[in-house]
Design a protein that fits this description.
Blueprint (H helix, E strand, L loop, with lengths): L4 E4 L9 H5 L9 E5 L6 H17 L3 E5 L6 H9 L6 E6 L1 H8 L11 E16 L8 H11 L4 E4 L5 H13 L4 E4 L3 H9 L5 E5 H9 L4 E5 L24 E9 L4 H14 L3 H9 L2 E3 L7 H22 L5
Parallel strand pairs: 2-3, 2-4, 6-7
Antiparallel strand pairs: 1-3, 4-10, 5-8, 5-9, 5-10, 5-11
Helix pairs in contact: 2-9, 2-10, 4-11
The structure holds aspartic acid.
Length: 325
């Protein structure tokens, strides 16, 4: 398990006064920890650090990012579910939080009931990519290789239940072939191995792959959204003949269940403030990642969306018949 802490302190934190404390809406006046379930340098980590920076500025207090990796994000989620519900220990998680509800039959927490969703923060296309010398130049060739070689090819993922693994399920079911999957603690180490030629194929967030695609350090074939994304010269999977490989990876921030409603509201307002920050918007743009609109960055929307996503992935995972336990 990797633990890494980084302190993000805004200048305002140094000026903390009782008036500012009130402005925190009951959030205790000490550092907030955003627990990140995947490795430093990957998409969840990058998004978390940008959001944490903006929240620190808005709240006038420190926000610490801590990477607690392993088991598809369930170790980090379990830790936050157990934390004191006062708003100082939070979880940044993605679509994988919804899928683990089905994929893991013995979780020590309830994906929906043990958390207070605070707001969605982002959406990103997944990209189908391969090592730099992979023998295919378009999605048809990529799928042909997979159909011909099957288990002779390696497919990376960041733990069972992670976005990469879900996209890998869609890819393998579209190809009608199983690949040899290799688990990593996040997308960052997986991409490093792919650039070095040790992993053949991967389906990963544009947040992570866009810079490597632009620098031609990996090959890229398609984005998994119904429409193309600006900033990446790639067809959609539907345009390239594989309409069933369709998913976007959303991220959201959670507090433990039982966090007072006014604290939830204050933290949610801080997310919305962070999503208006110039630096975050510029970085998200470079990483082809959509910030959540203000109407989606709310507890009510996030709670509803999580429930829909749990229901959406349940039959897909059950049909695949593969569980993590
Ligand atoms: N991309 C990883 C996953 O989707 C998570 C990460 O490294 O942020 O499972």
């Amino acid at each position: 398990m990797i633990h890494r802490r980084t302190l993000l302190t805004s200048g305002a934190a140094l000026l903390a006064t009782p008036a500012l404390a009130q402005g925190r809406g009951g959030v205790p006046d000490r550092a907030i920890t955003v627990t990140v379930p995947f490795a430093a340098g990957g998409p969840t980590d990058v998004i978390s650090r940008l959001v944490a920076e903006g929240m620190a500025k808005d709240l006038g207090q420190s926000v610490v990012v801590e990477n607690v990796t392993g088991a598809g994000g369930t170790i980090a989620a379990g830790r936050v579910a157990q934390a004191r519900p006062d708003g100082t220990v939070l979880l940044m998680h993605h679509i994988g939080h919804a899928s683990t509800a089905t994929l893991y039959r013995k979780l020590p927490y309830d994906v929906q009931e043990s958390f207070a969703p605070l707001g969605l923060v982002s959406d990103a296309a997944m990209t189908l990519v391969a090592r730099p010398d992979f023998p295919a130049d378009d999605l048809a060739g990529f799928m042909r290789e997979i159909r011909e070689k099957g288990e002779a090819l390696t497919l990376a993922h960041a733990g069972l239940g992670g976005a990469n693994q879900l996209c890998g399920v869609l890819l393998q079911s579209a190809a009608g072939r199983k690949l040899t999957t290799v688990a990593f603690r996040g997308s960052a180490p997986a991409i490093t191995d792919m650039i070095a030629g040790r992993i053949d194929v991967f389906c990963d967030q544009a947040t992570n792959t866009a810079p490597f695609i632009r620098e031609k350090r990996i090959k890229a074939y398609a984005v998994t959204l119904p429409q193309r994304v600006p900033g990446l010269d790639l067809p959609t999977t539907a345009e390239a003949g594989e309409p069933d490989i369709l998913m976007s990876t959303w991220h959201g921030l959670y507090a433990p269940a039982g966090t007072p409603p006014e604290v939830q509201e204050r933290l949610s307002a801080a997310i919305r403030a962070a999503l208006r920050e110039e630096r975050l918007l510029t970085r998200f743009g470079e990483l082809v990642t959509q910030p959540a609109g203000a109407e989606r960055a709310t507890p009510a929307y996030h709670r509803r969306y999580l429930a829909e996503e749990v229901a959406r992935w349940r039959p897909i995972i059950q049909a695949a018949g593969q569980y993590a336990d």
